[in-house]
Amino acid sequence: MRILVLGKNGQVGWELQRSLAALGDVLALDRAGADLSAPESLPDVVREARPDVIVNAAAYTAVDRAESERELAFRVNAESVGVLARCAAERGAMLVHYSTDYVFDGSGTRPWREDDPTGPLGVYGASKLAGEKAIAGSRCRHLIFRTSWVYAARGHNFVRTMLRLASERDELRVVSDQFGAPTPASLLADVAASAIARATGGDASVSGTFHVCPRGETTWHGVATAALHAAEARGVTLRCPPERVVAISTSEFPTPARRPSNSRLCIERIERALDVVLPHWHDPLADVVAEIVR
To answer: Which of 6, 38, 67, 181 has the most crowded CB, counting CB atoms within 10 A?
Structure first.
């Protein structure tokens, strides 16, 4: 099996190179090799790679900046995704793509199911939803994984930022009224590998859209305090200990883009399809913090 991975230097793309290695020959490209801001260049990339599976881990993810860069966000997250989907359909290849809880409006308290009505609050979510629709419209074989609050031991993410700020400041103020589950990039990569293996092995139930995140729920404040506790447990001395992380409301931390209050995702479908029980959010967080502080 020939697997083309786009976004090799991102958090998920980095982990995919590990998780997909056992499935076949992996060609992983960075932006220089496959630039999603230039959709017209992508057919040649796919033609040259001759993949059986295309895994798109590249995206425009600057949520706030997207409000003033709508054209670029849609070009990367929608137009280019549509091009990849059409290329996959023409080749008879499978497209694996990552999407987000931001396609929902964040209302209520029930975890979102895959077939719930969408309603993005901002440009980023709207662009990701447009990408999903482009994939569906192409009729290519596909897997779309919606997820939330991605982090890893490398790259730019909330967990690394909290650990850095806790070493620099006496106090942190973190939002406590947005609910979801922090998702390690390694989990997204491992789920993708399992799903691809099943789908290409003939399991017709592994197809379409799935929600992927750990079990349980917390807030950004909960993630921050748990990360700092995990760092202290590994001997790290923090200028701001977990007890001095102050819980604040979303209204006290205004941003250009509105964030969903409810980012909970129902994971029953992916657990059933892969016959797995995903971990509780707290366990992989502690492991990733341990990797960071090492």
So the answer is: 6
Q: In whole angstroms, what is the distance from residue 70 CA to residue 2 CA?
A: 34
Please name the residue that has the structure tokens 């979801």: 180
Report the predicted TM-score, pTM, of the whole model to 2 decimal places.
0.95
Query: If we measure between CA atoms, which residue out of 25, 32, 31 comes closest to residue 10?
Result: 31
What pLDDT is recorded for position 204? 86
Catalytic center residues: 124
Mean pLDDT value of segment 92-114: 97
Domain count, the chain: 1
* Tokens describing residue 47: 């033609």
Q: Is residue 73 part of a domain?
A: yes
Residue 128's CATH number: 3.40.50.720
Q: Which domain holds residue 270?
A: 2-156+183-215+264-279
Average pLDDT, the chain: 96
* Domain contains 135: yes
Measured on CA atoms in the order 154, 23, 204, 130, is the torsion positive or negative? positive
pLDDT digits (tens, 9 = 90+) for 58-98: 999 999 999 999 999 999 999 999 999 999 999 999 999 99
Asked whether residue 289 is domain-assigned, the answer is no
Question: What is the Cβ-side half-sphere exposure of residue 235, based on CA atoms within 13 angstroms?
Answer: 3
Cα 128 to Cα 107: distance, rounded to the nearest angstrom: 18
Here the contacts of 270-277 (C-beta below 8 Å, separation 24 or greater) are 270/145, 270/191, 270/195, 270/210, 270/211, 270/212, 273/195, 273/198, 273/203, 273/205, 273/206, 273/210, 274/191, 274/194, 274/195, 274/198, 274/206, 276/194, 277/215
Cα–Cα distance, 38 to 52 (Å, whole number): 22
Residue 239 included in any domain: no
